[in-house]
Each structure stands twice: as C-alpha cells, then as structure tokens.
Write a structure and sequence with these properties.
This protein has ten helices and no strands. By secondary structure, it is mainly α. It has one domain (2-233). Helix 7 runs parallel beside helix 10. It is globular. Pfam families: ABC2_membrane_4.
C-alpha cells in the first residue's frame, strides 16, 4: 500500500509547501530577532521564540492540511471510485495516506529545525548549546500532528477543494489558539495538542508527565474518531 501511494503522489505541491512555509517562518523570525536583539538577549532561546511564534500557532496546521489534501486530490480525480471499488479495505488507504502524511510532516519539521540551527550558527554567530529541548519540541510536534492528519483526512475525503481545506485549517488554528489561551475550561486547552505545545515553546521546558498523558489521550481519541468518520465517508451510500 505504501509503495502504491508513493507512485500516485504528486510531489510538487507538497514540496513547495514543505519548503516555503518553514523557510518563511524562520526568515521572518530571524528578522524580528535581529530587529530586537537588544531586548532578546538569550541567543538560541530568544531566536527560537521568534521563529516558532507564528509557525506553531497558525502555520503548522494549515501545512498539515495542504499535505493531506494534496494526497487525497489524486483520488478525487476519479471521484474516489478507485478506492471504493478496490478489494483493499478503505481503512488501508486511510492508514497508508496517514503514514505518508506523517513522514512528510516529520521531514518538514526536521528541515525547520535545521534552518533554525543554520540561522543561529552562521548568521547570528551564537555559541554552541544543548539542542535537547529543541529536538524534544520538534519530536513532540511530529507526534501531536497525527490527530490533525486524521482530522484533515476526513475533511479531504468530503471536500475536493484545496482552498476550502486550507481555509478550514486556518479556522482550526484560530480555534486551537483560543482554546489554549482561555482559562475558563483548562481541560479544553489540551484538546488540540499542537496549539498547546506552542505555548510551551517560549518556556524552554519539558512538559510534565500528567499533561503529556492528557495530550496523548486526546490525540488517540481524535485519531480513532476521525479514522472511523473517514472510513465511513468512503463507503457508497445506498
């Protein structure tokens, strides 16, 4: 299945989004850091807060949506018929596209971290530092991207238009930001793990075990629910 998905994938949209969005986030973050270098005095940590400020809060979820919708756009050209008449179970297509989406997002996040390192090392001329916390945050962002991948798989099956998917992903980012910043219902702040993670990027700290457990519990629940909805959406209606 994974080999089949690889053969069907059109990489141009994926490549452009995966390269340009992290690059822009790093460039704008670097410019903002250099413009306020007299205030932002913590070198690597200060630069990290600037490059991740908007990327994790608002750009990463639309990037996931673009990746997922691009993978499903191939199937929409045949109105999903090739999947629906295939002897292979529908859930196998959903899982294989989910794996490819996760792999692309993982590579994109590592590319984002590489850009951050190159900026700090060769443009800002920072001294060497322990990168453990940054690798931790990037690794966690990859894991927490999984529920968003399945959310947008469901939406990408129901909606053909990439533009509408991106618009919905933008609203999702805004909703996630609102949930994580409100203090009325603290539990809701952990429903969207990527947005919650964005709040921790400025702290330079590891997330405690109890909070991680809640984040993973919500993530697993969301994966199960939206996998079921995506699978149901691929079935012919009588």
């Amino acid at each position: 299945m994974l080999i089949l998905e690889l053969k069907k994938t059109k990489f141009l949209n994926l490549l452009l989004a995966s390269i340009i969005i992290p690059l822009l986030a790093n460039v704008f973050g670097l410019i903002n850091y250099l413009s306020n270098v007299e205030i932002l005095v913590l070198e690597w940590k200060s630069l990290w807060t600037q490059v991740t400020l908007f990327y994790f809060s608002f750009f990463l979820i639309p990037l996931i949506a673009i990746v997922v919708a691009s993978l499903w756009s191939v199937e929409h050209k045949a109105n999903l018929k090739l999947i629906r008449i295939s002897p292979i179970k529908n859930i196998s297509f959903i899982i294989s596209k989910g794996i490819w989406s996760l792999l692309i997002i993982a590579l994109t996040q590592m590319y984002f971290l590489l850009l951050f390192y190159l900026e700090g090392k060769f443009i800002c001329h920072f001294s060497d530092t322990d990168f453990g916390i940054y690798i931790y945050h990037i690794s966690l962002s990859i894991v927490l991207s999984m529920p968003m991948i399945f959310v947008f798989q469901f939406l990408a099956i129901k909606i053909k238009s990439l533009g509408i998917i991106v618009l919905l992903s933008t609203f999702t980012s805004i909703l996630g930001f609102a949930l994580t910043t409100q203090n009325i219902f603290p539990l809701l702040a952990k429903v969207m793990g990527l947005n919650y993670l964005s709040l921790w990027l400025n702290n330079g700290r590891f997330i405690n075990t109890q909070t991680l457990t809640l984040l993973f519990a919500f993530a697993i629940a969301e994966i199960i629910v939206f996998s079921y909805l995506a699978n149901k959406s691929l079935k012919y209606e009588k």
